Request: fold
Amino acid sequence: MKTFPKPLTAREERAYLERLEEGDPEARKVLIERNLRLVAHVAKKYNFPERELEDMISIGTIGLIKAVDSYRLGKGSRLATYAAKCIENEILMTLRSDRKYRRDVSMYDPIGTDKEGNEIQLVDIMESQETDIVEALYFTDTLERLQRTMPQILTETEYRILTMRYGMGCREGVTQKEVAESLGISRSYVSRIEKRALGKCRRSLAEYSCM
Reply:
């Protein structure tokens, strides 16, 4: 596989992004070329006999281009973090549209092999708990964004319940019953507030995700 150029440093990336927002087409080209290594990294996660790696990289590059065109400096995260999710979304969207990956395919049908030649089933992909650099970046960025925005999008009670339930702020999470006892309200009321607060968080993250 071809060698891709080195990624931009944070300082270089910001400079090119500023030029892009000023309408410089050359900056757009550089931002795409210098993130092709990220595309290859994401594409390597998917090993399907029906699609060559180069094909997966081509598909992922479409996601990268969408990321560069839609990214704004005010998003609060590095372009690479944002682009990684866009690249993965583009690849998964293509695979899902393929007839071989429709819902009528068995979860236990072989769909490829891993690096050691072991057979991979669809269920293995669905249930994999392995964390790689892209997933770690996205998780960290998502968590940091939630922590920044929760105080703005949630009421005081909603914020308090979520922080208690999910162990935010360097504490362990507790049950709905324990939250109810601590706040002097019913468990069912805690459940309703928690559900409403999680909905607000999901909508906030959806607005941030790559379209």
